[in-house]
């Protein structure tokens, strides 16, 4: 298991929500800007990845408090 120090853990906690928002913005909302038809699979995948990254960021934040 990867053990992170206090500094790198803080950076990951701060950056995971930004990364999650970027992913959902580019994959989900980016479909409206393209000429291709809307893909429900891509939309569901981007929302699932968004939730996963936010959940992992919250998990890291709770482990930091312990």
In short:
The chain has 66 residues and is mainly alpha-helical. It is built from 2 helices and no strands. The chain has one domain.
What Rg, in angstroms, do the CA atoms define? 15 Å
Helix content: over 70%
Strand-residue proportion: under 5%
Instruction: Tell me the domain tally.
Output: 1
**Given the C-alpha coordinates, what overall shape results?**
elongated
Order of helices and strands: HH
Mean pLDDT: 86
Q: How many helical stretches?
A: 2
Characterise this structure.
With 66 residues, the chain is mostly helical. It has one domain (6-65). It has helices spanning 6-27, 40-65. The longest helix is centred in the last third of the chain and has 26 residues, at 40-65. The two termini are 17 Å apart. The model has no long low-confidence stretch (mean pLDDT 86).
Key terms:
single chain; 66 residues; mainly alpha; 73% helix; 0% strand; elongated
How would you summarize the topology of this molecule?
Blueprint: H1 6-27, H2 40-65
Helix pairs in contact: 1-2
């Amino acid at each position: 298991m990867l053990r992170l120090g206090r500094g790198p853990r803080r950076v990951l906690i701060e950056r995971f929500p930004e990364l999650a928002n970027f992913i959902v913005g580019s994959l989900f909302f980016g479909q409206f800007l393209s000429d291709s038809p809307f893909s429900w699979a891509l939309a569901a995948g981007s929302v699932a990845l968004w939730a996963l990254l936010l959940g992992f960021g919250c998990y890291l934040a709770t482990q930091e408090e312990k």
